[in-house]
Write a structure and sequence with these properties.
It is built from four helices and 29 strands. The chain has helices spanning 3-28, 107-110, 243-247, 415-422, and strands at 31-32, 42-45, 51-54, 57-61, 69-73, 80-88, 95-104, 113-121, 132-135, 139-142, 160-167, 170-175, 178-184, 192-197, 209-218, 234-235, 251-252, 262-264, 275-278, 281-284, 298-300, 307-315, 320-327, 340-345, 385-392, 397-402, 405-411, 439-442, 449-458. The chain has two domains: 31-218, Sandwich (Jelly Rolls); 240-458, Exo-inulinase, domain 1 (Jelly Rolls), CATH 2.60.120.
Length: 460
């Protein structure tokens, strides 16, 4: 066989092998976003931190004086499943992965701004890796206070395997095979994939590196991976449940259409006026600011013992309300019915915030008993929706959450709890808050307050 013929056969064989390789890749459904050699298909925006390719890895290096820097895909994506490996070597090297990211090149005087869904890489003691953060916009959507078991998934100094699903309005995340976060949100339908090098606080942190490799995506024939654990879903849809939530036992307490399942606290029927349902929102109208003297409180027709209760609420300026639980309606009270209360209040404008003891009447507190340990960054401004949550476990442990962060915890019936009751307005009621079951109550305090997405899961 002469040289020319051997060369021709070699070329044909090579083409055939390459063709087979490409067909296998297509059948697999994955597209490599990083070719392992250079940054083709990517660009750096919003900062000056450099990215380079070394030995098949993308390496981003922190620099002094730069805001968050992102390496983003030139292409944009709608529904997809993304997988990649990410490594952080220092606790100061906060990072993340943008999913359906957005970029405004004119922002910050032409320096540009990246914003949108970011899946966190958090090597600090807080350990919120895999949580979902709305970069440069709304802040945390899914803090890992909602899934504390997942805090151990991320390994410092090692490559961590991320899986991110963005299908329809649902965002789901995994780290090293562990289920982490689940958000339902419709703000961004499409956007780029981005890799972050975070800004640094001082020049001593310059030179810290973050590593990425094996970045691949699926965009067709997507097969969502089901969550197996029972995890909270943060949903910004209106009065709906995912199939996953339904399977885990969640149900709506407010259907968004009418008052079904609710009645006046001191009536047999729902109040004829004052409480209104419109456009999927339940609202108590403003009157004179007095406690339960107009339309009156409303309660669930059912009673509950151990449960996980989530709800969205929106305050108007200076407003006061509350969500109460273990309401028995057996106490004789002139104003609102008696029960344990998740306080709903404008802390800045309503005088009740400065009453009580050491702030125990402020927003999300166990009213008149325990002050909510909350940070301003996890509080939405008046006029925006906040997410409340109350969890009562079968062993009488109770937790309050505000926007996904735990702010109160106590044990019903414990000595510490009873000591607090003995020093409160509730001391006149025997065994206050220790009933085996009770109604859920929404308070009329004479101010306009709105509610939606009220859902509950009973706990055994």
């Amino acid at each position: 066989m002469n040289y020319s013929l051997r060369k021709s056969l070699f070329v044909l064989t090579s083409i055939a092998l390459l063709s087979c390789s490409q067909e296998q890749k297509a059948e697999d459904g994955w597209t490599e976003l990083f070719n392992g050699k250079d940054l083709s298909g990517w660009k750096v925006v919003a900062g000056t931190a450099p990215y380079e390719v070394v030995n098949g890895e993308i390496i981003g290096t922190s620099v002094a004086g730069s805001p968050n820097t992102f390496l983003i895909t030139e292409a944009t994506y709608g529904d997809f499943i993304l997988e990649l490996d990410l490594k952080v070597e220092d606790v100061t090297s906060n990072s993340g992965v943008m999913a359906r990211g957005q970029f405004d090149p004119a922002a910050r005087e032409g320096k540009g701004l990246v914003f949108g869904y970011q899946i966190e890489a958090d090597p600090t003691e807080r350990a919120w890796s895999g949580g979902i953060y709305d970069e440069a916009r709304r802040g945390w959507l899914y803090p890992l206070e909602l899934n504390p078991e997942a805090k151990t998934a991320f390994k410092m100094g090692e490559y961590n395997h991320y899986r991110i699903e963005a299908i329809g309005d649902e965002l789901k995340t995994w780290i090293n095979g562990q289920e982490v976060a689940y958000v339902v949100d419709d703000m961004d339908k499409t956007g780029f994939i981005g890799l972050q090098v975070h800004s640094i606080r001082d020049s001593t942190q310059a030179g810290r590196k973050t590593y990425f490799k094996n970045v691949k995506i699926q965009t067709e024939n997507l097969q969502s991976q089901a969550f197996k654990k029972d995890l909270p879903v943060v949903s910004n849809s209106l009065n709906t449940l995912t199939e996953y939530e339904k399977a885990m036992g969640w149900r709506l307490l407010f259907n968004g259409q009418n008052s079904e399942g609710w009645r006046g606290a001191k009536k047999e029927t729902f109040p004829e006026s004052g409480w209104n349902v419109a456009d999927g929102i339940l609202t108590i109208s403003k009157t004179d600011g007095s406690e339960s003297q107009n339309a009156g409180d409303i309660v669930t027709t059912e009673k509950f013992s151990a449960f996980d209760l989530a709800f969205d609420f929106k305050l108007t300026e200076g407003a006061n309300s509350g969500l109460k639980y273990f309401v028995t309606l057996s106490e004789e009270s002139k104003g609102s019915a008696i029960g344990l209360e998740y306080q709903i209040l404008d802390d800045e404008k309503h005088p009740d915030a400065k009453m009580g003891i050491a702030g125990n009447r402020t927003l999300a507190s166990l009213y008149d008993l325990i002050k909510a340990d909350k940070q301003p960054r996890f509080m939405k401004p008046i006029g925006e929706w906040n997410k409340g949550r109350v969890v009562v476990y079968p062993d009488n442990r109770v937790e309050h959450y505000l926007n996904g962060v735990k702010v109160v915890e106590y044990v019903r019936g414990s000595k510490e709890y009873r000591d607090l009751v003995a020093n409160s307005k509730y001391k006149i009621w025997e065994n206050f808050g220790e009933a085996a079951e009770g109604h859920i109550l929404l308070q009329d305090h004479g101010d306009e307050v709105s509610f939606k997405n009220i859902k509950i899961k009973t706990l055994n």
